[in-house]
Design a protein that fits this description.
Number of domains: 1
Number of helices: 2
CATH superfamily: Nucleic acid-binding proteins
Oligomer: single chain
Radius of gyration: 19 Å
CATH topology: OB fold (Dihydrolipoamide Acetyltransferase, E2P)
Largest sheet: 5 strands, mixed, barrel
Strand order of the largest sheet: 2-3-4-6-5
Order of helices and strands: HEHEEEEE
Strand content: 25-35%
Helix content: 10-25%
Length: about 150
């Protein structure tokens, strides 16, 4: 009887692991380019969490939006924010606040050399906050100027 219980438990664990894996994200190959508007869209952002992707963006400004709170997001400590939009778009988010990219502070010197309108390639993944706010930012591991 004990062996039967253990086999049943092992079978249930395998079934649960398989269901969890199939419900998780299927990431594209590392550094695959995904349109930024799609990555930051509420319907698609969670599909790219945990994936190593790249997106082309247009630089808006260094720094975060003044007085904007990031309470629903964890993992932003020690990171430098800057604002971007999808190429050719204006504004972007709720209240016309452009999307934010966060880059580790030790890699962030480069963002202070960009000018408004510069095209960049960001590499990393989106970070999706908890409901009800559901804030979305892009956590970059790398930022570079796009080849024109």
């Amino acid at each position: 009887m004990r062996l039967m219980s253990q086999l049943l438990l092992a079978g249930a664990s395998i079934l649960l692991a398989t269901a969890s894996a199939s419900a998780g994200n299927t990431c594209p190959p590392p550094a695959t380019e995904v349109p930024f508007a799609k990555v930051m869209n509420e319907a698609f952002a969670a599909d790219h969490v945990g994936c190593d992707i790249t997106s082309k963006v247009e630089f808006v400004a260094a720094g975060g939006t003044p007085n904007y709170l990031w309470r629903s997001l964890k993992g932003l400590e020690g990171k430098t924010p800057f604002r971007v939009v999808a190429p050719g778009q204006e504004g972007g988010g709720p209240f016309d606040i452009p999307p934010h990219v966060f880059l580790p502070k030790d890699k962030s010197d480069i963002i202070f050399s960009f000018k408004k309108g510069d095209l960049l390639i960001v590499r990393g993944e989106p970070l999706v906050g908890a409901k009800p706010l559901r804030q979305i930012v892009f956590l970059a591991t790398e930022v570079r100027a796009a080849k024109q």
